[in-house]
Design goal:
alpha+beta, two-stranded antiparallel ribbon, 12 strands, about 400 residues, about 20% strand, 10 helices
Amino acid sequence: MLAYIIGVVLFALGICVSVALHEAGHMITAKAFGMKVRRYFVGFGPTVFSWRRGETEYGLKWIPLGGFCDIAGMTALDEVTPDEAPRAMWRFKTWKRTVVMSAGSITHFILGFVVLYLMAVTMGLPNLTPADPSPVLASTSCARTATTEAQAKDTTCPQGAARPAEAAGLRAGDKVLAVGGKPVATWQEMLAAVQATSGPTVFAVQRGDQRLSLVVDVPKVQRWSSAGVREVGMIGASPVVPAITTQYDPVAAIGATFSFTGTMFAETAQRLVEFPERIPAVVTAIFGGERDPNTPVSVVGASRIGGEAVEQGIWVLFFFLLASLNFFIGVFNLLPLLPLDGGHIAVVWYERVRDWIRGLRGKAAGGPVDYTKLSGITMVLVLIGGAVTLLTVTADIVNPIRLQ
């Protein structure tokens, strides 16, 4: 239990640090371009302590959830003092404002990459191999009846139990090419072919440079599954399971991390596309339905999974989740929706394109976008975001996703 609590706290702390660094990304780039940064605080709520260095106030607040960076004149509607007006953010060039507003997401991407690189050179990166391994035997065992879940999970062999695969001459390392003349490419395909057959069956096998034909006398046994107990063919064999992770030297880890990061970006984009259609499953889970492990999770759910990973000693999963969350937050924050940074970037580039078109037509540049006209859309998006957050947090409390 203590390990679980430590894991939850560490994961939550990792998220808080990530979000605080997100705001630091905005601050550093804004200062670099000459914008005035009034305040940079970690956390929210009442101030614990603060200090001033130069023109910026730095501090810590009581609620350690994220932070904020107050840049003078982020929009033309923001109030600024006469001395701040020349350095108001909205007066700067489009590309500079874009850099500042995207710096938070870029910080998340850098953090995710660093976590993955450190994993690559220490504990290794997870192998993103297909869930279904090749039909290569790791070992042979027995074929026996199992009418309950507990019996099905028991891998011991009773004395005198039939060993069809071993009796036919199958060995560890053999790759099954076909069962009864039916080609198989994966372990699941081989398993389905075996379960559908019985009696003497020809197995085409690759053993090193040799191609063999071995006859296996396949018995029918009663086997439990989630679909119920049914009679299936069984030979008594287990597959070679690919290594969970691959470790790299410091140089090779750079390329491996870039490749792995690209894969994670693609998966993150796919999850964002599928996000709306998975919300109904979250509602179902709240009211007692089975929790789909592919449903969205909140910070609470992610922290709980991180805690379970530490409790079970699966540190690879802990850091993988932390990197994944950074990539997700970074991509999500760039969506062109207010009040996200991506929404502010969209407004900035709308102004740029609009003024370019006006210039082609011989007109003067238009004024800054009036954010008050977008307040209605912004409020709707905030309410939707709040509702989704409430749903996922509730589901993660009453029906959390758990590690098996």
